[in-house]
Amino acid sequence: MNLRNVAIIAHVDHGKTTLVDQLFRQSGTFRDNQRVEERAMDSNDLEKERGITILAKPTSVEWKGTRINIVDTPGHADFGGEVERILSMVDGVILLVDSSEGAMPQTKFVTGKALKLGLRPIVVVNKIDRPDERIQEVLDEVFDLFVSLEATDEQLDFPVLYASGRNGYANEDPTLREGTLEPLFQKIVDHVPPPALDVDAPFTFLVTLLDRDNFLGRVLTGRVTSGKVKVNQAIHALDAGGNVIETGRASKIMSFRGLDRVPVDEAQAGDIISLAGLTVATVANTIADTSVSEPIQAQPIDPPTLSMRFAVNDSPMAGREGSKVTSRMIRDRLLREAESNVAIKVTEAADKDSFEVAGRGELQLGVLIETMRREGFELGISRPRVLLREEDGQKMEPYETVIIDVDDEHSGAVVEKMNLRKAEMTDMRPSGGGKTRITFSAPSRGMIGYHGEFLSDTRGTGIMNRLFEKYGPHKGTIEGRKNGVLISNGTGEANAYSLNSLEERGILFVGHGEALYEGMIIGENAKPEDLEVNPMKAKQLTNIRSSGKDDAIRLTPPKKMTLEQAIAYIDDDEMVEVTPKTIRLRKRFLDPHERKRQSRAKAA
């Protein structure tokens, strides 16, 4: 059968997964009466809730006798490691660009990787039915982007289609607003080369994705690079140095058909398959016939730039809500994650009770923490810190390209705040519709915790995109959070009577009746210093005063933080306590005397 392998790459929210939905429908993958969820490729709970793709996933459709293997990729820069790996499985890419937003930072990151591998992209200008579309300018931006990424003449001669993924049409004429995706299928078949691989050579296969199945154990996914593989064939796994890690048999071979993995008896060079039967082999290993001793070289992955400390939850309320609370369970889970997600690195601390987890950004680590808490883990999480390097005796830190789209009236506030965070403006221009696009080069350190403030400054209308740029000279101290916090000075339940009088001190994070403990953060102080308060004090009963008449107390609803907001909010001496049901903020040292001792030691 004719075969094409193609990846769909784009910036976040430019419509990749919605387009794949329509490709399924129009290729006859689904029965007419089959109930199909929207964005069918976003299969796990977190992806559905957040409306973003987190994991790269292969699928396949059949069109006029050609099988097209499509890999849907995440659009967020934090999950770039997913995209870097899967580009070695495909022979072509479809670059999706929003007809209004144009080429964004993530587009640049992934396209650069694809062009380096010599892949020739098909450019699809999506969402052409938007009222604020600017198709011609967006095309010019894409061409300029390709030139800046040193594309070859062949890559610069890219075919263009104008589409609306949601409405299910693509055309070569930008004025048409109807039709089907037939032109896109045709373009993939004509423009993407079939896999030019040797079917007669011994079997080799590079693992790019790893997942687990309750019945099959380890399931390794990748593309067959040469030869054929049959069920029960003897195989072995090689690491990057060519050493044999383990030998075994291919107990099950599965090929992708639509959303399902279907067992097949054999697969040959070029096909994207999942393979079961090995217990140790992992991502970037080569699975091959036992006669093969040369491994396939995997794509190098960009290093992580940010790390957090994952510790055992040692608060007074530990173990009440989670079922997995020991350091051994946390260690096993983190090592399992690092194995399947190559962009994450885990190192154990000397005290054996905490782990340094390094990744690409707050969102990537936030998704890992959210996944773990849903599995029943309890954790203590520290403030994120950037990973510094030393080059020629000089301290270097990671920088990011930050592209911000804001309404014109808010641009002054954004520029002022970014300057405080040691960012340098590199470009500022109107982007139409009363909006301005501002580009900064900013140290990653300064961007930690800025997103919430940014949304407040822009009344929720601003859009910020960040992408790792380079390692550059260390910028010195950057001012952190300006306000101190309100700390509970005892253990008990929050009382409306005392919370009412604490409201004038600042913003509260807890409501009446919530369980508190000493050292827990219950709100933000209006002043710069931390303040210890008693939120549990009840109204005293006397002969003259009754304990009633408290019906008049009307508390402002407390500010409840999401996991990402909490991680971005905390300071260096604070932690986030994460359990399956609750997210609490606390001081690292709960005892006030210990806190004083530590701050004196730090000052000294």
Structure description:
The protein is an alpha+beta fold and 604 residues long. It contains 15 helices and 35 strands. The strands form 7 sheets. An 8-stranded antiparallel sheet has the order 12-11-17-8-9-16-13-14, with no helix packed on it. Helix 9 packs across helix 14 (563-569). The protein is globular and about 95 Å long. The chain starts with a strand and ends with a helix. The model has no long low-confidence stretch (mean pLDDT 84).
Short description:
This protein is an alpha+beta fold.
Question: Mean pLDDT, as a whole number?
Answer: 84
From the spread of the alpha carbons, the general shape counts as globular
Number of helices: 15
Q: What's the main sheet like?
A: 8 strands, antiparallel
Overall structural class, as computed from helix and strand content, comes to alpha+beta
For the terminal residues, how far apart are their CA atoms?
Answer: 73 Å
Low-confidence stretches: none
What percent of residues are in strands?
Answer: 25-35%
Helical fraction: 10-25%
What is the strand arrangement across the widest sheet?
A: 12-11-17-8-9-16-13-14
Cα Rg: 27 Å
Number of strands: 35
